[in-house]
Amino acid sequence: MCGGCVGTEYPERGTTCLEGGSFLLNFVGCAQCGRRDLVLLSNRETGVQGGEEIVTYDHLCRSCHHLIAHHEYTFSVVDDYQEYTMLCLLCGRAEDSISILPDDPRQMTPLF
């Protein structure tokens, strides 16, 4: 992974968890060849480990195939919530939790 290719290493992305794609606003250009072109996705793997779905892939420079970053996305169901995480030098770090119930108990207002 290459910190010279990105503007900010592991930027905070809030709840934006990407299962695919790239955060191109953070890509400043390839540190190896100097070009700022589209980013390729390579070596995509999907698997389930301990009840958690894990998607990994590499971001590569389109021109010289230099490794920019390794991307990891996870999805799991914990109690009544879908849990998402993302960790990537280019795309950043993020977490999200969404209720699988029609009404999210965390969003309910007390009646009293």
Automatic annotation (TrEMBL):
GO biological process: fibroblast growth factor receptor signaling pathway; positive regulation of DNA-templated transcription
Listed GO MF terms: zinc ion binding
Matching InterPro entries: Churchill_sf, Transcrpt_activator_Churchill
Record key words, sorted: Activator, Developmental protein, Metal-binding, Transcription, Transcription regulation, Zinc
Family: Belongs to the Churchill family.
Protein's UniProt name: Protein Churchill
Species the sequence originates in: Melopsittacus undulatus (Budgerigar)
